[in-house]
């Protein structure tokens, strides 16, 4: 079995097409299964299920997930813990072409944390 670096695995993250209901648009993000083994323990729930907890924007951006502003990690697909579910307000980019101030602040925090880690990825 080939051993990949975290950066190589981040390049293999898969993003679903977007789908929507009347309030939110959604997408799921599929992490390479090997990547789960490389994530910090504090990113997982405390109950030994092996499931990720809900990640902050800085955390999910820090592991290599790249999306436009407004997305929030809101659920983990328990049968397949490497699948993360995201949502954002419907028409977010139309309503907030420059992004909401809180989302811009979260993005800037993620960039600062990435720079502090030395990987420059947010």
TrEMBL record:
<comment type="similarity">
    <text>Belongs to the CKS family.</text>
</comment>
<dbReference type="GO" id="GO:0051301">
    <property type="term" value="P:cell division"/>
</dbReference>
<dbReference type="Pfam" id="PF01111">
    <property type="entry name" value="CKS"/>
</dbReference>
<dbReference type="GO" id="GO:0016538">
    <property type="term" value="F:cyclin-dependent protein serine/threonine kinase regulator activity"/>
</dbReference>
<comment type="function">
    <text>Binds to the catalytic subunit of the cyclin dependent kinases and is essential for their biological function.</text>
</comment>
<keyword id="KW-0132">Cell division</keyword>
<dbReference type="InterPro" id="IPR000789">
    <property type="entry name" value="Cyclin-dep_kinase_reg-sub"/>
</dbReference>
<dbReference type="InterPro" id="IPR036858">
    <property type="entry name" value="Cyclin-dep_kinase_reg-sub_sf"/>
</dbReference>
<keyword id="KW-0131">Cell cycle</keyword>
<protein>
    <recommendedName>
        <fullName>Cyclin-dependent kinases regulatory subunit</fullName>
    </recommendedName>
</protein>
């Amino acid at each position: 079995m080939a051993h990949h670096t975290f950066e190589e695995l981040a390049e293999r993250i898969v993003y679903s097409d977007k789908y929507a209901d009347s309030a939110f648009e959604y997408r799921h993000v599929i992490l390479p299964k090997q990547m789960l083994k490389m994530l910090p323990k504090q990113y997982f729930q405390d109950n030994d299920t092996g499931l990720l907890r809900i990640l902050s924007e800085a955390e999910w951006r820090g592991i290599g997930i790249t999306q436009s502003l407004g997305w929030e990690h809101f659920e983990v697909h328990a049968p397949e813990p490497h699948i993360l579910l995201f949502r954002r307000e419907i028409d977010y980019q139309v309503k907030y072409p420059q992004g909401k101030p809180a989302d811009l602040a979260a993005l800037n925090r993620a960039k600062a944390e990435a720079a502090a880690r030395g990987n420059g990825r947010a």
